[in-house]
Design a protein that fits this description.
Elements lengths: L2 H24 L4 E11 L6 E11 L6 E11 L5 H11 L8 E5 L11 E3 L4 E7 H9 L5 E8 L4 E3 L3 E2 L10
Antiparallel strand pairs: 1-2, 2-6, 3-4, 3-5, 3-7, 7-8, 7-9
Length: 173
């Protein structure tokens, strides 16, 4: 192999890598996480902590993310593998929400502050109190919830399942 042929192969490989690198870097990305948390109740006169869950939408990309909606999901029935396979074939999408109910945060008097633009390297946090989660879990078949953030182009990003069974905290004084 000649030196020029080796350089041509090297240049072709390098330009292909740079091409895919630019595609990955130019695509806006965001992440949705749920964590257990405490929030100080600013509405009451006395400083009282509330237990609940924080929904955090993070923007690690170099582009601004425009969110239109943040909502919660809870499991209303267990689905079989056959139903999930049917969903995959019929809708040609991954069946990660088969058997789950989407519910808006406004149904529980929680302001998600959407639509909102999240700048690169920033996050948007929403607190969901324990009373809302307990109410949601009472209608569920499992003590699990998920969060979903939807951008302006209707692309959904789901969090992983959050197990709420450990949230039963008694306020004994």
């Amino acid at each position: 192999m000649k030196f020029t042929e080796g350089m041509a192969i090297y240049a072709a490989c390098l330009s292909t890598i740079v091409f895919f690198w630019n595609i990955v870097k130019s695509t806006p990305r965001y992440r949705v996480d749920m964590v257990f948390g405490l929030d100080a109740d600013s509405d009451s006169d006395k400083s009282e902590d509330r237990v609940g869950v924080y929904i955090s939408v993070k923007n690690p990309s170099a582009h601004t993310i425009h969110l239109s909606n943040v909502s919660l999901l809870y499991a209303y029935r267990s689905e079989t593998l056959l139903k999930k396979l049917y969903h995959l074939i019929k809708y040609q999408s991954i069946p990660n929400t088969v058997g789950w109910v989407h519910t808006s945060l406004s149904n529980y008097d929680i302001d998600d502050k959407c639509p909102i633009a999240i700048e690169p390297g920033q996050a948007h946090d929403i607190f969901v109190p324990e009373r809302v989660i307990t109410r949601m879990i009472s209608d569920s078949v499992r003590p699990e919830i998920k969060a979903v953030a939807q951008d302006q182009l209707w692309r959904n990003k789901y969090s992983s399942k959050f197990n709420c069974s450990s949230m039963q905290i008694s306020n004994e004084e």
